[in-house]
Amino acid sequence: MRRVTRIALAGTATASLALALSACGGTSTSGSSSTDSKGHKGLAIAYDVGGKGDQSFNDAAFEGLKKAKSEFKYATADVEPTDGETDADKTQRLVSLAKQGYNPVIGIGYAYGPAVKAAAAKFPNTTFGIVDDSTVEAKNVADLVFSEQEASYLAGVTAAKATKSNVVGFVGGVDVPLIHKFQAGFEQGVKDTKPGVKVFSQYLTQTAQEGGFSSPDKGKTAAEGQIEKKADVVYAAAGLSGQGVIEAASAKKVLAIGVDSDQYLQEALAQYKDSILTSATKDVAKAVYNLAKSVEDGKPESGIVRGDLKSGEVGLADSNPAYKSNTAIQDAVKAAQEKIISGAIKVKTS
Predict the structure, then answer these.
(1) For residue range 19-30, what is the model confidence (pLDDT) as tens digits?
(2) Domains, in order of start, for the chain
(3) Most C-beta atoms within 10 A of its C-beta, which of 15, 72, 75, 309?
């Protein structure tokens, strides 16, 4: 469901953003320090665990910010997380951005739920967004969520078609409901496509604070363990930790399936790209940009704004020629996608 409300634009700032945020995470700003013709600064995002440079979730959000900055010609800001931060730290970060006049202000990741709720109450004339959380109910908040299980189902179809050992793996960053959606969709896609394939699934940590989304070494160790058990396709939904999974797959000459961004195209992963068969993507960049555009147009999005296979905001990347040219995989993925969109296949979320 998409609800749209008209919200007055935030006022201009009176203090330096760099000073205001010095105690709650590093920040970078771009564009003029003055407000735009509508009387406000532009989009600001606060990164999830792992920060910018994860080649995945956070970097996708940054692409949306770059597009908004280029199109709307206004000041933007993007702020890094800090180790061991609390909900109060996150709230302070969002409040500081809103005080500066940035609008909208988006928390990247479900962990920002309490902070977005608190900041939105303090600044009812500022539009807030949160990615991957559907629990913040406020007139000035857009819950930007995705049907990750649908893209993961297609990843499972791909893994089942690609495996030669009939063993595949799933590595989740943190044992939380969001990542359960990735696991559930992947396992269902594998089983529906080739019931005899064994799936090893594991999580790196129980909480994000333990580094499940930010520790490539943990991802590498987990993937190596699955590969030792004959897994020859490994799917990671683990943020920055997924880089370790991809590295392990490359070293062991097996295949990896990336997540969120098209990881085959990521420069930091270029040396491993021949092992990245595809990626289960969600268009965080589009969601971030669309919220910024809705504010710029004077009709801010609010409520649940969902991206799925039907909208084209989740899917599988086809940058790897080996994936794109594999007729058996392509035909199976296309057939599954059509059934999911039509409702013939109901993809599990847990």
Answers:
(1) 334 334 555 554
(2) 3-146+284-307 (3.40.50.2300), 148-281+320-342 (3.40.50.2300)
(3) 75
